[in-house]
Amino acid sequence: MPSGSEEPQMESGLKRKAWIAVFLVSGLFWLVVALAAWIYWG
């Protein structure tokens, strides 16, 4: 990773992407859990 210019704007974009990734992974995880429960009890 190139470390030379640390700008708050870049950090903000990275933070937003990190949050999107967290929500995406969380949503996917719960979707898999719900599907597994559906198959198990269905």
Topology, element by element:
Blueprint (H helix, E strand, L loop, with lengths): L7 H34 L1
What does this structure look like?
- By secondary structure, the protein is an all-alpha fold.
- It has one helix at 8-41.
- The longest helix is centred in the middle third of the chain and has 34 residues, at 8-41.
What's the total number of strands?
0
Which value, in Å, is the CA radius of gyration? 17 Å
In N-to-C order, the SSE pattern is H
What would the average pLDDT be, to the nearest integer? 86
Poorly predicted tracts of residues: none
Ends distance: 48 Å
How much helicity do the residues have? over 70%
Strand content: under 5%
Number of helices: 1
The helix/strand class is mainly alpha
- Biggest sheet features: none
The outline comes out as rod-shaped
Organism: Buttiauxella selenatireducens
Keywords: Membrane, Transmembrane, Transmembrane helix
InterPro entries: YmiA_put-like
Pfam family, one: YmiA-like
